[in-house]
């Protein structure tokens, strides 16, 4: 009887969590059965999270600035950012302060950014599911990932296909919170968590050494950076459904 029980038992799938440090490496990961968390802390995924939490009906990520124009006659808000700046002629860029209830509540935003929307489209091609991560929704995101019987890939948008510090720190924060719920980690997860543990007591101070922080400082948007490093301001988890990012319904 014991033998029969052992044979009939189905072993529990051991979930793994991985960190892809740049979109240039995503082809190295098998993500067909994975939830991919797209991370672009400064500022795309922070702004997306804040916008969805503030009642935006949907946010449509597009690859190119010109693609936004295809939606102008639909009455959607058009948001375009390149190299940290708002593209001339568009409603706004990717500052979180453009995604308040007053501006985006009940509306659809079409968004293109330097790094974040590119990472979204790469993930969409093969992932089981694509969700958005930021410090603003860290706890909600981790609670959701913990509840799913799926592998997780934390995809850092980086900067023009290169490694960046802020996205990696967030990936490390997720790994740190989920460590007890996943059995397999890759070395990039270990490195990301170690960096997060070094930085977690003062994320802003730690990130002053980052290249993107210097770029944003030249644009005089320190308030954006500070806002994006806040913890758990939002409950919403944006999820990609077709071409639209909408609020995940648990």
Automatic annotation (TrEMBL):
Pfam families: 2-ph_phosp. The keyword Mitochondrion does not apply. Transmembrane segments: none annotated. Keywords: Hydrolase, Magnesium. Its EC number is 3.1.3.71. It catalyses: (2R)-O-phospho-3-sulfolactate + H2O = (2R)-3-sulfolactate + phosphate. Its cofactor is Mg(2+). It comes from the Bacteria. Belongs to the ComB family. This is Probable 2-phosphosulfolactate phosphatase. It comes from Pedobacter zeae. The gene is comB.
